[in-house]
Amino acid sequence: MKKPKRATAAKAKKGRKTSGSRTKTAPKRVAASRRAAAANDAGKDGSKAVIRSLRTKLAKALRRVAELEAAADTDFLLDIPNRRGFERELQRAIAYMKRYRASGALIVLDVDRLKPINDSFGHAAGDEVLKAIATTLTRQIRASDVVGRLGGDEFALLLWNLSETDAKAKAAIFEQAIDDLSFTFRGQHVTAGASAGISLLGVHSEAVRALEEADAAMYVRKAHRRHEPRIRLVSS
């Protein structure tokens, strides 16, 4: 009968050891779990920070791309669309006209006496004339219209909802406004001038063809103005 008692005591002792071992192991597992959770949270926070940083950099890059695209379409001297920018606006306008059966007019305008001004007073004087002309044209158009510089001494205007009669009248107004400009260089009063050609826009228009037609009409107009003084200089 004594042997069973010893066996029972041994089992009880073994059970106490196992229970104590389990008690000691449990806190370690909890701590490890907490460390893993903390590390996981830190990883998530780090990933979120990286994503925010990348989004910020992407937004800055997109803004920079937009700025460069705008600069590529803008004349650096006059701050109006250059040929590339104007042609893009013209193509968009014609696409709209075709879809909604709208109309308009394209006017190509050439400064008549810019070369003599450059030759007599330098390109800085010519730049001043161009700036004044750009300002004058911008003031003469509506917010929906577009004025651009095709290059050198040639400008173009995209005007919405004009009949042929209205377009011709508007071209005459532009010419007169530029003819009325007066400049003083080296003590001499100088006037420039302008010749305008028109191409009507509608559902059958094409951008390239419209520019060619307006340009050709402009040269016809310029030929008609050749009897006018090439450049007027009056000593002050």
From TrEMBL:
Domain of life where this protein originates: Bacteria
Region (Disordered): 1-42
Residue ranges, compositional bias (Basic residues): 1-19
Species lineage: Bacteria, Pseudomonadati, Pseudomonadota, Alphaproteobacteria, Hyphomicrobiales
Signal peptide: none
Residues covered by the GGDEF domain: 102-234
This protein's name: GGDEF domain-containing protein
Species the sequence originates in: Bradyrhizobium guangdongense
